[in-house]
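Translate sequence into structure tokens.
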Amino acid sequence: MTRRPDGLLNHNVLEDDKAPQDACGVFGVWAPKEEVAKLTFYGLYALQHRGQESAGIAASDGERILIYKDMGLVSQVFTETDLASLTGDLAIGHCRYSTTGSSTWVNAQPTLRPTKYGTLALAHNGNLTNTGDLAEMVQKLEGENAKSGRGATTDTEIMTALIGLQDEKNVEASAIAVLPKLEGAFSLVFMDEKTLYAARDRHGVRPLVIGKLERGWVVASETAALDIVGAAFVREVEPGEFLAINEAGIRSQMWATPDHKGCIFEYVYLARPDTTIAGQGVHATRVQIGKRLAIEAPVEADLVIPVPESGTPAAIGYAQQSGIPYGLGLVKNSYVGRTFIQPSQTIRQLGIRLKLNPLREIIEGKRIVVVDDSIVRGNTQRAIVRMLREAGAREIHVRISSPPVEWPCYYGIDFASRAELIASGLELEEIRRSIGSDSLSYVSMEGLIAATTIAENKLCTACFTGKYPIAVPADMSEGKMRLEITEAVKNHEHI
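Result follows.
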């Protein structure tokens, strides 16, 4: 048997110091007489950065929904044959990074559920905060028909079940009945045999946009996915909005009053630089953050270098504002993830060099400004500083294009726990000593908000401030495995 690639390529420089990971990317298309599965494949391809654990596509020919999903990257999961079998006029797709439920095949999306009015397929980006309450609702509705073990252990599966169990006339009416019961962050694309649906939570935490094809419509997490399939950007799905798209056209209704709280970290790291969010180009915003950083934390130096690729736009901005030349001091191997072959002890000790390597001739003897997007545990920055010193850098000044990350996210980003976040326990000088740089500065909260040009009261800044706009219940402390813990307890009780 031929082994497939493992699909675990990722952005992490060090495996024990993950960058913040987004929950997922979603894509939906209604386009008669188009190859909807291929459009969805390429849409997911553009959203790969949002989740690299699993991928799936569901398509409908008007009579039935077929679904194909597997673990791995989008390019590894699907073949031409797979896509050719997914025929029809509409499709939805999903690439996953797990935030509720472990990274297993059964938790891959879209989720599928039979209902009394047809089949429901659903894909979700975000994270619900009241999953426990919703699971109880599902259990009550299922009654004696409740499964002893649900299989999937995601908030997405619970949501799908809840919509499917409503006593309404169709999927649309069921969704409208369920949406007000959901708390937390969710950007949804879902479908029955004939109609594509989309919905966004009333805070608009995670992005969701609408695009127009020549013969149809597209809904996606980011504008970059519209670009790749040739769809013209129309607008964002409004917070608290529900959409239905079929041969009758596109219909919209508001199921909640909007209370904008867009995730500020989308601008710092999560979104692709070529994406537009709330009318702001992400690359341009990151360049502005870098300029703010140069004003707030100037230093005498010979060269500004980014930690590729996450620090690149901010490093460009820092160089432009400071007048210090910009250069490439670190080269990244984008193709290295976890492999089937474990590195030897000798290789493992080199650690970071599997992903990053310094250009000695560029940095030797120079005073270097290193720009990165965030510090999580500090291990990556420590390794980078050490490597640059070994390569001959005379001084190393670390500049970070976000404020210190002190709080975990419960709305669809997988950060380290609070105890693991270096900024939650150490002061600035202590962090500097820990990573070994000559100086360390973060952009201010005010500087970051100003760079986005969005009012502070319309942004979620919880990971920096600890001010959560959506209530976070105590059981969220169980983390992404909380439904699995519940299932395990239930199964033990049945024994």
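Note: Residues 21-261 form a domain with the Glutamine Phosphoribosylpyrophosphate, subunit 1, domain 1 fold (CATH 3.60.20.10).
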